[in-house]
Amino acid sequence: MVFILGISLGITALLLRSAVAIAGVGLLIVAAFIAAAFVSQTGFHLLSLLIALAGYNAGMAGGFAATLVIQQMRTA
Prior knowledge:
The protein has helices spanning about 1-15, 20-40, 45-75. The protein has one domain. The model has no long low-confidence stretch (mean pLDDT about 90). Helix content is about 85%, strand content about 0%. The chain is elongated. The protein is mainly alpha-helical. Helix 1 packs antiparallel against helix 2 (about 20-40), helix 1 packs across helix 3 (about 45-75) and helix 2 runs antiparallel to helix 3 (about 45-75).
């Protein structure tokens, strides 16, 4: 579930086409996990943060790949 959320955030940030938005979303993911660590009594698992960031990167990579494929189809 965390990975899918990361993918959707990555695709959404990529659609904004702004470097500030892409970096901002990445920082907000980390900020949300830090806030969860402070609020939660049991803490949080670092693995969940890494999975969310991996999903974020995978979503952006998938978006870039889809853009390249669409551009190749238009020129062919």
